[in-house]
């Protein structure tokens, strides 16, 4: 079942081109018109939505954070992301014009289920993004958008994460189509970019040896920091979570802009810092800002490990290690930039002799509150 891989996790990391491709399959026609069959909410109702709240836990919540950037940009609907277990206990503002998007690989996470139930009681419409057919959360939601990543066995989520991000892009584009926020041609172009990502993920996987070698050389590391901005921020959080879960190494992810507000005090000689760099072709001054963040930590002794876009030579002089990912748009980059971080955590945990499929203290689905 592991297809010759030493662990389910490695198999699932390598399944990711297929997981993304399967999630995209059959959801749009040649003109870029999306038809989401399981979207059982009346389109007229979806047109009146004035707020989206994404509810999820753990890695699925990071997929939600990526979704916020895409949905707000494409649909202009205010979108919040909240951990399911925080949501219910703070008297949130939810009504019939609120769309709840829950994200859960298992569809059984109790915290998320309870949050969805609560939101429904308040009259909200609920969509479940889920990887498990017929599980409880999609059954209790008004609509479901299945991710087709295939069964995820390893406790640490990998392919489900990329499939969830893909599904939220589809949902965002569907809402933009319905509400007329994007022209059909723009949707078609974004779908064409998305369709190219499986092959690009495969390219990242083909370069796994470089990141595995780095992981082996870092087996004695005690703490690792991850920095990102924009959609690179949730990717940084996910990179840190993978390392904690699998290698039991202290790790933290930060929004790079937050460095000077405190975390930069942590940097001392030799501190490993991963930096997720946005495309230099992207909007605004995002790229330049992140490059200056790299310089700031490096000036204080950090060992910088940079994930950047192919052809971005500007980062080389600031980095001990550079991993290049294929070109893509700013919003779609998490489908690529996450992969080296997964490989790194898996390889480091394996080097330390840990069971990457069954990390200590963790369960695959958390069915208690
Ligand atoms: O099944 P779910 O997506 O609802 O699970 C949510 C989290 O428990 C899950 O993502 C967890 O954080 C994983 N161990 C991450 O690798």
Walkthrough of the structure:
- With 369 residues, this protein is of the alpha/beta class.
- Helices cover 44% and strands 15% of the residues.
- The protein has a 5-stranded parallel β-sheet, sandwiched between helices. The protein has a 5-stranded parallel β-sheet with strand order 7-6-8-9-10, sandwiched between helices.
- α12 (286-299) links the parallel β8 and β9.
- α2 runs antiparallel to α9 (184-206) and α8 packs antiparallel against α9.
- The longest helix has 23 residues, at 184-206.
- The model has no long low-confidence stretch (mean pLDDT 95).
- It binds 5-amino-5-deoxy-1-O-phosphono-D-mannitol (M6R).
- The site of 5-amino-5-deoxy-1-O-phosphono-D-mannitol has 16 residues, from α4.
- The active site is at 364 (for fru-6p isomerization activity).
- Catalyzes the first step in hexosamine metabolism, converting fructose-6P into glucosamine-6P using glutamine as a nitrogen source.
- It is found in: Cytoplasm.
- Homodimer.
- Residues 41-181, 214-359 form the SIS domain.
């Amino acid at each position: 079942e592991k297809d010759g891989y030493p662990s389910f996790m490695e198999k699932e990391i390598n399944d990711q081109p297929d997981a993304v491709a399967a999630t995209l399959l059959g959801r749009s026609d040649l003109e870029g018109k999306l038809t989401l069959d399981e979207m059982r909410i009346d389109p007229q109702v979806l047109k009146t939505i004035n707020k989206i709240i994404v509810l999820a836990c753990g890695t699925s919540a990071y997929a939600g954070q990526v979704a916020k950037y895409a949905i707000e940009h494409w649909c202009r609907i205010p979108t919040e992301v909240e951990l399911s277990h925080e949501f219910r206990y703070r008297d949130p503002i939810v009504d019939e014009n609120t769309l709840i998007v829950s994200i859960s690989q298992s569809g059984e996470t109790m915290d998320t289920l309870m949050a969805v139930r609560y939101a429904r009681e308040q009259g909200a419409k609920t969509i479940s993004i889920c990887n498990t057919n017929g599980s409880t959360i999609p059954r209790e939601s008004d609509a479901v958008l299945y991710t087709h990543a295939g069964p995820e066995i390893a406790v640490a989520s990998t392919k489900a994460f990329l499939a969830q991000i893909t599904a939220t892009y589809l949902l965002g584009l569907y809402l933009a189509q319905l509400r007329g926020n994007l022209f059909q041609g723009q949707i078609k172009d974004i779908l064409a970019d998305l369709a190219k990502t499986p092959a690009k993920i495969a390219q990242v996987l083909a370069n796994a040896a470089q990141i595995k070698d780095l992981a082996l050389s870092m087996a004695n590391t005690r703490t690792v920091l991850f920095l990102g901005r924009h959609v690179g921020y949730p990717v940084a959080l996910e990179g840190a979570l993978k390392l904690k879960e699998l290698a039991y190494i202290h790790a933290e992810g930060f929004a790079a802009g937050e460095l000077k507000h405190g975390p930069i005090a942590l940097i001392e000689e030799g501190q490993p810092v991963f930096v997720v760099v946005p495309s230099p072709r992207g909007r605004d001054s995002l790229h330049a800002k992140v490059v200056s963040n790299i310089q700031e930590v490096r000036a204080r002794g950090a060992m910088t490990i940079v994930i950047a876009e192919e052809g971005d030579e500007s980062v080389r002089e600031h980095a001990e290690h550079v991993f290049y990912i294929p070109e893509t748009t700013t919003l779609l980059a998490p489908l690529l930039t996450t992969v080296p971080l997964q490989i790194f955590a898996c390889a480091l945990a394996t080097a330390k002799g840990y069971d990457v499929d069954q990390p200590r203290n963790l369960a695959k689905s958390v069915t208690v509150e």
